[in-house]
Q: What sequence folds into this?
């Protein structure tokens, strides 16, 4: 099985897309990734396959068959093309399939582009759209949404492990501080911890969304795209950049109905996918220098940091209190700003996480660089933890 690396990355500004089509938005990140690698479109471009990850293009943007449209738009014909949908984990799933296509020998070079244009609908419509991932009879029909699940889950973790609302805000402020140094992040404003937690008007500045989750404990609704160009490591010398190796990939599922889980506070699919990725890479949690964890709700960063082995179960919030997850700490998490401040266009998120790790391992994360980073982990979380993809990237020795 051939080794696979990433030789090009691209990223649009997350936030609200002003003008242009869904295809235009995808092409921004795609062209940046191709330019980064030194690949020209047209005859002899060398891209064998294009995967596009998106959850809502057909529903929100009235555009299906987006992968074939993008291939034509970018003048990459006759490259193979498919659209990949795995909820918020669509991006990492698409990269996994790109890895498989190259490792199998079917392709030498694969372009993966993830994107979502979600701000074309109201907040209520967007929340309902995301909730279609839930079980149609046991959950969705009862009015459950992802914020509702996250609120219930947070309450359980508070009761069992002593997590507080202030702990969630500490994680949030840390991610906003990181996002200030990320030019493509959705939000470049850092909230004051006292003002959103202890001030007498905190309930106004940081109102409840799904108690005990407040506004600053949840990610924004974002438009945006991200792209990576994958290649076989034995073909990498024809590109501009030295490859960052995809050293490990793991994926796991859990029950569709959340109430059927044996231990409701566990994120079993996160744990299992990370274990698979570590085994494939031949690494341990202690070998990871930087991580991008799926923090659509701040409780998820805390628990994921435990499930992937950075901290003991029930101690992730204490580590955050002590600054261990800040840049310069024991294990910097979400240096990009995470979903919380960088933004969360569903289909783009898993690709965006990998873009950040590539930049960290290249030493290109200006203002938020983790010095000497050689290995990074991503966790892309689908549904409410019922389909999770973990990935480990490593920098090859000079």
A:
């Amino acid at each position: 099985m051939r080794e696979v690396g990433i030789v090009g990355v691209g990223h649009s500004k997350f936030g609200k897309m002003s003008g242009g089509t869904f295809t235009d938005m995808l092409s921004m990140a795609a062209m940046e990734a191709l330019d980064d690698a030194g690949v020209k479109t047209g005859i002899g471009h060398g891209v064998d396959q294009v995967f596009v990850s998106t959850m809502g293009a057909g529903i929100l943007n009235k555009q299906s068959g987006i992968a074939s449209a993008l291939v034509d738009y970018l003048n990459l014909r006759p490259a193979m093309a498919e659209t990949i949908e795995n909820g918020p984990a669509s991006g990492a799933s698409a990269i996994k399939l790109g890895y498989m296509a190259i490792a199998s020998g079917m392709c030498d070079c694969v372009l993966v582009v993830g994107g979502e244009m979600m701000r074309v609908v109201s907040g209520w419509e967007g929340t309902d759209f995301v909730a279609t991932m839930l079980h149609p009879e046991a959950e969705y029909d009862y009015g459950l949404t992802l914020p509702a699940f996250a609120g219930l889950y947070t309450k359980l973790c508070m009761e069992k492990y002593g997590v507080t609302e202030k702990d969630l805000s500490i994680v949030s402020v840390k991610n906003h501080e990181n996002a200030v140094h990320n030019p493509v992040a959705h939000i470049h404003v850092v909230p004051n911890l006292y003002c959103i937690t202890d001030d007498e008007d905190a309930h106004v500045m940081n109102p409840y969304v799904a108690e005990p989750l407040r506004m600053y404990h949840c990610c924004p609704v974002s438009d945006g795209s991200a792209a990576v160009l994958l290649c076989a490591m034995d073909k990498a010398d024809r590109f501009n950049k030295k490859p960052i190796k995809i050293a490990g990939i793991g994926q796991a599922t859990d029950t569709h109905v959340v109430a059927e889980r044996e231990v409701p506070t566990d994120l079993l699919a996160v744990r299992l996918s990370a274990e698979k990725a570590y085994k494939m890479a031949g690494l341990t949690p202690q070998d990871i220098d930087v991580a991008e964890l799926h923090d659509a709700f701040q409780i998820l960063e805390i628990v994921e940091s435990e499930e992937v082995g950075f901290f003991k179960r029930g101690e992730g919030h204490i580590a955050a209190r002590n600054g261990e997850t800040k840049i310069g700490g024991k294990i910097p998490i979400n240096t990009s700003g995470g979903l919380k401040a960088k933004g969360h266009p569903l289909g783009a998120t898993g690709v965006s996480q990998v873009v950040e790790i590539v930049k960290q391992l290249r030493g290109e994360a200006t203002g938020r660089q983790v010095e000497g980073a050689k290995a990074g982990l991503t966790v892309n979380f689908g549904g409410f933890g019922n389909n999770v993809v973990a990935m480990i990237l490593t920098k090859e020795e000079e």
In short: The first strand starts at residue 4 and ends at 11. The chain has 14 helices and eleven strands.
